[in-house]
Amino acid sequence: MMLVIPAQIYDQINDKCTEGLALALASNEDGAIMEFQWCNKAFTKITGYAVSEVIGQRGTILIGPDLGQDIHLYIIEKLMNWENFSTKALNNRKNGEVYWQRMSWIHLSDTETGDHWWLCSIIEEENEQAKSDKPEVEEPTTSDQESYARVFDKVQRLEKENTRLHQLAKSVAKDANEDALTGLSNRRHFEVEVKTWIENLKTRGTEFAVLYIDLDRFKFVNDTLGHEAGDRLLVSVANMLREMTCKTDLVARLGGDEFVILKPLGKSALNISSLADEIVRRTRETFTCDGKSTSCSASVGVAIAKAGMEDPEQIVADSDEALYHAKSQGKGRWSFFTEEMHANSIAVKQLASDLLLACERREFLPYFQPLIDAKSGNIIGAEMLVRWAHPTKGILPPIAFLDTAANMGILNRVDQIIFACLHGAMSRLDQAGANLPRVAVNVSAARLADPTFIHDIKSSGIDPRRLTVEILESVYLEQMGEVFRWTIDELDELGVTIALDDFGTGHASIRGLLEIRPDILKIDRHFIQPVVQEASTRPLVASIIEIGKGLGMRVVAEGVESEEHAQLVSDMGCDYLQGYYFGKPMSEDNLRKRLIETGGNLWTGRSLENDPIKDRGIGQAC
């Protein structure tokens, strides 16, 4: 039986414990960056700092002026490397009083949140150096003079070592605050400085702007010209930002191709917009490396920290939101943070929170859109489309949440839920006598590059021979790598059918077809929809069908919305038909009822013999 310790016992530990204890929350990137979150009464008594003076402060408040620089550097090194350690040295209380102190640091970690903590222990110890009265002054003997010479020489060596350590400390401090490649402030220094700027805003009303900068085509430069060229570009951009800013501004490289500027607002915001304009204009200029020219535009997000604003700590996130908006509008431009963006940001955060709950509650379910055999009109399968049964908003389509789920990295969890639901749905349909031969699922680029995808299929219980994996053309063109190739081979070995979705929308379709050689080719609906009214579009569709047939693939026409559509594309040679004409995406219950009522025959085709539609040019298109 577990005994609950009374609160008053905890209070007595805090009051009577003679060892000074404090807990500090550390940065995930650097163990030397921390903020104290708690301390006991002994800690305040030994150090001389009140609780309110400790909470929220960095560990540097424990570094007194009399603490040796060698000990200081030793402490920094151990903290940065997350090592437990202990020191014994002279240090200072808050009032400057010197005392002997044993200080220990123990690294703790929270397995649930991933947060890192330090437990700091301080014990005051007696001075162990001998205490004696000052001796009388006597004339030194020869041996005394030799002894003094040795002592003097040792003092000189110690002074030189102290100077060296002082210079090393300055160098360490500089390196800790400076980006090694560009010489700008690094993320660590920026995070410290922005807190100071925010504090000045609160106490003195010193308003400022944050300009968040991201290079739009940096990956392209790295991939085409090499990483050395990428580094040169980053240095060039850093030098450009130095030229365009003032000494009172802070310019930092946060990492990769991300930069940020803190700039005092001054009397007008026009200088901020002018700076953003200039950054966008200058980064469009040609960049040359080893005789090869390229361009690399930049997007900029701007936010203003104003006196009296409700949440100034949000200012960097606001500028990042404005940057995201600039990129979504076409890149190579700057955008100012607005309340609408703020509302969108809150909505996205709420959506992310709801999605996590949805995963826990397993609120995702499969909907089905029939796939019809063009000759018999029988259902040969259905495309599974995920839906979210939101507790307050009802059934939501994938466009409402899948992008956010992908950005959160939880698509695999959504897939696992859907696969489990899909297995149950297929089993129930089989038991009800509703014949559904196959089910097709769309697969994202991230999931194809995720080795656990194959495991999820195997563990779902679904017969792989009744499963079709649909790959977007844009996905396989971008992701053709070893993991992708391995995934395709594994699917093939399992007996899963591969379908290429939205064919014709990519930029290297034929190459992709030859490399993947899917079983099924799905022609994008944007090609199918106009073929009834616009005869000029039919030769292109006929050519796509011919390519697929020539490579031994079955061809699906997507977006079939009328009888004319169905007749026309089936006579052009499409094997399967899909579209609203045969049914919109429907729930499992509705699909079961439809299949039982129709016996699986969802379309009765008719011949085009003596049909006026034939005169519209179908024969010529074929």
SSE order and pairing:
Layout: H1 7-16, E1 20-26, E2 34-39, H2 41-47, H3 51-54, H4 69-80, E3 85-92, E4 98-109, E5 116-125, H5 142-177, H6 187-204, E6 208-215, H7 218-225, H8 227-244, E7 250-255, E8 258-264, H9 270-283, E9 286-289, E10 292-295, E11 298-305, H10 315-328, E12 334-336, H11 339-361, E13 364-373, E14 379-390, E15 394-396, H12 402-408, H13 411-431, E16 439-443, H14 445-448, H15 452-460, E17 467-472, H16 473-479, H17 482-494, E18 497-503, H18 509-516, E19 520-523, H19 525-528, H20 538-550, E20 554-557, H21 563-571, E21 576-577, H22 588-598, H23 618-621
Parallel strand pairs: 11-12, 14-16, 16-17, 17-18, 18-19, 19-20, 20-21
Antiparallel strand pairs: 1-2, 1-5, 3-4, 4-5, 6-8, 6-11, 7-8, 9-10, 13-14, 13-21, 14-15
Helix pairs in contact: 7-8, 8-9, 13-15
